[in-house]
Amino acid sequence: MSGHSKWHNIAAKKGKTDAARGAIFTKLGRELAVAAKNNPNPDTNSKLADVIAKAKAANMPNDNIKRSIAKAAGELGDKDYKELTYEGYGVAGSAVIINTLTDNVNRTAGDVRSAMSKCGGQMGATGCVSYMFDAKGVIVIERTVALDEDAIMEYCLEAEADDFTTLDDCYEVYTAPEKFSSARKYFESKNVTFLEAAVKMVPQNYVTLDGDKLETFKKMLDKLEELDDVQEVFHNVDLPDEE
């Protein structure tokens, strides 16, 4: 893992601009509302409970979370949001998976295709790169004096997690997708604070880009993440620590 987290950087997270946080909260708000549309009770809606954990890990205020859930019955109205995943390539054959939540498939597909093509990338067919990734539950926990490796190992065994990695500033716990919700609940019962908590597409191998290729790839990521319909972007590029 090169000694740094692929999912989380505490210093970078704390330094996010208000605008960046606002954009993240907007996307999470839509995800919360869609998850809550048919059942706003997280005790009986595990998907909603997972999204709430994800929102809390992103430091989304509780009032925002409650408002987003309340929107489920009202503001969404008859809008039919669909979860769609696109796959494709960035510069130098790098692999990209884009998760979207949209009420207009044609708009979203066009926007994603445009963002990629402007930065030397291209959309591909379903399955063109997903075979290079594994779906895994990822729970990132800040490393503290009170929470040492022995404690994390014991928690992982109890939570039936697959594995964990110790990094400079955090622990990364990995679970099978179907075990993610139960593992998340277990760690919550231990009053552990999450820095990340979600099912993610984890690349089997990372590629390194240098110079202009790296800058072009980062521009493509920015363009994709700026799109309102894009919820998450996964890729196999080993970004420098500051990213």
Structural class: alpha+beta
- β content, as a range? 15-25%
Helix tally equals 8
| Distance from first to last alpha carbon | 15 Å
Work out the helicity level: 25-40%
- Number of beta-strand segments: 8
Q: Taking Cα atoms only, what radius of gyration do you get, to the nearest Å?
A: 18 Å
Low-confidence stretches: none
Shape by Cα distribution: globular
Largest sheet, in brief, is: 4 strands, antiparallel
Strand line-up across the major sheet:
3-1-2-8
Mean pLDDT: 89
- H/E order of the elements? HHHHEEHEEHEEHEHE
Structural description of this entry:
The chain has 243 residues and is an alpha+beta fold. 40% of the residues lie in helices and 23% in strands. It is built from eight helices and eight strands; from the N terminus they run ααααββαββαββαβαβ. It has helices spanning 10-14, 18-36, 46-57, 62-71, 105-117, 149-159, 180-189, 211-226; strands spanning 82-89, 95-102, 122-124, 133-142, 163-166, 170-175, 194-203, 230-235. A four-stranded antiparallel sheet has the order 3-1-2-8. The protein has a four-stranded antiparallel sheet with strand order 5-6-4-7. α2 (18-36) packs antiparallel against α3, α2 (18-36) packs across α4 (62-71) and α6 packs across α7. The mean pLDDT is 89.
